[in-house]
Amino acid sequence: MHTIIAVVAQYAVYLSLVIALAVWLRLPRARKWEFAVTAVIGGALALGLMALGGALYHDTRPFVAEHVAPLFPHAADSGFPSDHTLLAMFVAMCVLFSSRRWGIVLLAITAAVAWARVAALVHRPIDVIAAAAFSVVAALVARPLALWITRRARRSLTLDSRQSCLPALSPAGAGERDRAPGDGTPAGGEDHSHERPA
């Protein structure tokens, strides 16, 4: 049982990343951009929240406080917040915006990661709960920003492509437009070609 806990605590997050990549590859092009921009903006926000939280609060890891060995080797630094849980939850949120079914699967993996890291004595419950909350906040803030950016970019590209398809009005073409249709006579002018000299 200890081996299973240690494996889940350390490596289950990589399974989340593989599933997220598979989901992203199956998305239409427009939704791929939405996913990617959400991941970039939200990832930056989540890392910022993690750094801020770690700077404001120090939590001694359980194996250090209780003077016991953890289920796998780990540094004796602050455990707040759990970076593994932060990553797993953020990936789950990104996928949830695009696929509810796979998002729920990744939420289950996140719960398993959080539980395993507490059971392995490398984190306390507050570490994993705070990490999950940071990721949820970051993803919910990033998603509308990502949608606004990608949709605005698509509108701009569409407008540019339409303008590039408009035919250029050359001087010759402008002259042709000034002629009356069908007789080669300038529009509004008189035809003197049949007048006889006096």
Describe this structure as you would to a colleague:
- The structure is a single chain.
- With 198 residues, this protein is mainly alpha-helical.
- The protein has one domain (2-159).
- Helices cover 71% and strands 0% of the residues.
- It has 7 helices and no strands.
- It has helices at 2-25, 29-56, 62-65, 83-98, 100-119, 125-165, 171-178.
- Helix 1 (2-25) packs antiparallel against helix 5, helix 2 (29-56) runs antiparallel to helix 6 and helix 4 (83-98) runs antiparallel to helix 5.
- The radius of gyration is 32 Å and the shape is elongated.
- 30% of the residues are buried.
How would you describe this structure in keywords?
mainly alpha, 198 residues, 7 helices, single chain
At a glance:
The protein has 198 residues and is an all-alpha fold. It has 7 helices and no strands.
Bin the helical content: over 70%
Tally of strands: 0
What order do the helices and strands follow?
HHHHHHH
* Whole-angstrom Rg: 32 Å
- DSSP summary: helix tally: 7
**Unreliable stretches:** none
Calculate the mean pLDDT score and round it: 87
The coarse silhouette is elongated
| Biggest sheet architecture | none
Topology:
Blueprint: H1 2-25, H2 29-56, H3 62-65, H4 83-98, H5 100-119, H6 125-165, H7 171-178
Helix pairs in contact: 1-4, 1-5, 2-4, 2-6, 4-5, 4-6
